[in-house]
Design a protein that fits this description.
By secondary structure, the protein is an alpha/beta fold. The chain is built from 18 helices and six strands. It folds into three domains: about 80 residues; about 190 residues, no CATH class; about 170 residues, TPP-binding domain (Rossmann fold, 3-Layer(aba) Sandwich), CATH 3.40.50. The protein has a six-stranded parallel sheet with strand order 3-2-1-4-5-6. The chain starts with a helix and ends with a helix.
């Protein structure tokens, strides 16, 4: 029976690798999810059967089966009900559950070690590390969920910064003080203190971070949950937990660093919750820019005479829930021979791949999605670029204003298009807090309207023109 268990774990690990490989391609992402999920399901079934086979049915086994069924049903219902615009919140919620599980496993295993009078300090350190990481991921993900839901605002105070540093120092120093018997604490007391400190740290860790940096935070918290799972796997001698945790942890760290690179910011700068300070470019650009307005009718006319159009989505598209109208506009233009592409910035939205998921939900074909680096050199071939809900990621100040907070950040070079139309509700600034110099370009016009109303109006005008 042990051989069957090991074989199922091996097959599950192989399914994780294949699933992860398929997830790198939008066309095969769904299949990758199915393969990885199938491997995990196989491992769970064999593990439960192995527990049943090893001895009589106990209350613990019954509780495990009930928990699995409840988790499956609730998870499926939540996923089915969640709108695509709420996907970042759902990811944060699920990640919080993963961190919470690692925390609970650490507490339970710590109790077992204490009651068994285990003197293996290495095992205790691994346990406490897994528990602290899980606690941080749990509370941090909860705050991320609340911030994405608009229920908690950014808190950037000196107290939060100082508290964050003190908590880190305390969590590092406490185990050494106990090991060298400077503090006389038993394992349960040590776990309780470290767990509490880590939970509080998760709160102050996410509090200062702004909404536009949430993709980085979610990715980092996800990687922490993976690390906690791998450490828990070491404690339980479970190869599947170790391998799965390593996959999640390493992928999360890599994605976090790639997104930081896409913003030309260090991870520390993101976690500190601020851009580098600058004030000159903001005030001067506000004075020098001459804003040119356009109308729904004028935009529709320009699109009717275009041969190639780019749609550049941002978080505002998700807020307006206008992704389906984008698809309708794309289909209407393509029936008349107009080529339409969607250009995606790596950090657009509020979670990794947010725009990709949003557009996929609206049945936008994968071949229509273009990465920033793929098209930046050929942006001049687009007759019209429509910017919907994006701001900093198309701001030319990132390239030509060394005093700007976003200087050096790779952007989508929408300004190279023959014409740029930015759809936005008002003149609000992006997350960096600077004016967008794109608005003052000769080839840029602003359409002040809700994205949903604007796109609906453009589609109506095109139909009126018998386009």
């Amino acid at each position: 029976m042990t051989i069957l268990l090991e074989v199922s774990y091996f097959l599950a690990m192989i399914s994780f690798i294949i699933g992860l490989k398929f997830l790198s391609s939008p066309q095969h992402a769904k299949l990758g999810n199915i393969i990885a999920g199938g491997g995990m399901t196989l491992a769970i079934i064999v593990t439960v059967y192995h527990t049943f086979y090893a001895g009589p049915v106990t209350i613990n086994l019954i509780l495990i089966i009930i928990a699995i069924l409840l988790g499956t049903i609730l998870g499926r219902r939540m996923s089915d009900k969640a709108e695509m615009t709420k996907m970042p919140q759902l990811v944060s919620y699920f990640n919080a559950m993963g961190g919470g599980c690692a925390l609970l496993l650490g507490i339970i295993e710590g109790q077992q070690l204490y009651l068994g009078q285990n003197t293996d300090r290495v095992a205790e350190v691994v346990l406490m590390t897994a528990m602290m990481i899980g606690a941080t991921s749990f509370s941090g993900s909860v705050i991320a969920y609340l911030k994405l839901s608009g229920k908690v605002k950014d808190i950037r105070t000196r107290f939060v910064s100082i508290a964050s540093r003190l908590l880190i120092i305390s969590m590092i120093v406490l185990p050494f003080l106990v090991s060298f018997e400077v503090l006389h604490l038993n394992l349960i007391q040590e776990i309780a203190i470290l767990g509490s400190l880590a939970t509080i740290y998760g709160l102050v860790f996410v509090f200062p971070i702004g909404g536009a940096d949430m993709p980085v935070v979610i990715s980092l918290l996800n990687s922490l949950t993976g690390v906690a799972t791998a450490l828990a796997g070491i404690l339980f001698h479970n190869l599947l937990m170790i391998s799965g945790g390593i996959f999640v942890g390493s992928a999360g760290v890599l994605l976090t660093l790639l997104m930081c690179k896409a913003m030309n910011r260090s991870l520390w700068n993101v976690l500190a919750g601020n851009f580098k300070n600058s004030g000159s470019s903001t005030s001067s650009s506000a004075v020098e820019m001459e804003i040119k307005r356009t109308s729904i009718g004028e935009l529709a006319t320009n699109l009717a005479f275009s041969s190639k159009v780019a749609i550049i989505p941002g978080y505002g598209l998700a807020v307006a829930q206008a992704q389906h109208l984008c698809t309708q506009l794309e289909q209407l233009l393509e029936t008349k021979g107009v080529e339409v592409d969607y250009i995606i910035h790596p950090v657009a939205g509020r979670m990794p791949g947010h725009m990709n998921v949003l557009l996929a939900e609206a049945d936008v074909h994968y071949d229509k999605l273009r990465e920033m680096d793929e098209v930046n050199d050929s942006m001049s071939s687009y007759d019209v670029s429509i910017v919907i809900g994006a701001n900093d990621v198309v701001n030319p100040a990132a390239e030509n204003d060394s005093s700007s907070p976003i200087f050096g950040m790779p952007i989508i070079k929408a300004y190279n298009s023959k014409q740029v139309v930015v759809i936005k509700r008002g003149m609000s600034k992006g997350y960096a807090g600077v004016e967008n110099s794109l608005f003052g370009e000769d080839n840029c016009q602003l359409l002040f309207a809700d994205a949903k109303d604007a796109l609906s109006g453009v589609i109506g005008e095109l139909k009126t023109l018998n386009f």
